[in-house]
Write a structure and sequence with these properties.
- By secondary structure, the chain is mostly beta strands.
- Helices cover 0% and strands 30% of the residues.
- The strands form four sheets. A three-stranded antiparallel β-sheet has the order 3-4-5, with no helix packed on it.
- The termini are close together.
């Protein structure tokens, strides 16, 4: 007894972004998977905001004399597909 099956999967792995940071411009709200940077009550006077937050200490990065907070937004297009392959033939024992 044997099976000779060819299989191909399409539209794998897609998921929409849970957040929308928007364009990298000031004066608008930016939301991320692990933080936010929002317009404050002063309308971001001096191009600064006090209305921001992040989830994990690991997002604080110090490099080249700078202290930064790294925020992330993830998504994946549903366009991946598998390569066609033939399953191994099974023989009775």
């Amino acid at each position: 007894m044997g099976f000779n099956i060819s299989v191909q999967f399409k539209n794998l792995g897609g998921f929409p972004a849970l957040s929308n940071p928007g364009l990298p411009i000031s004066g608008v709200d930016h939301t991320y998977d692990d933080g936010y940077n929002l317009v404050d009550i002063s309308d971001n006077a001096g191009n600064l905001t006090s209305n921001w937050g992040y989830e994990n200490d690991s997002q604080h990065v110090t490099a080249n004399g700078r202290n930064d907070i790294v925020m992330n937004s993830s998504s994946s297009a549903a366009t991946a597909s598998s390569i066609a392959a033939t399953a191994a033939t099974m023989s009775p024992t």
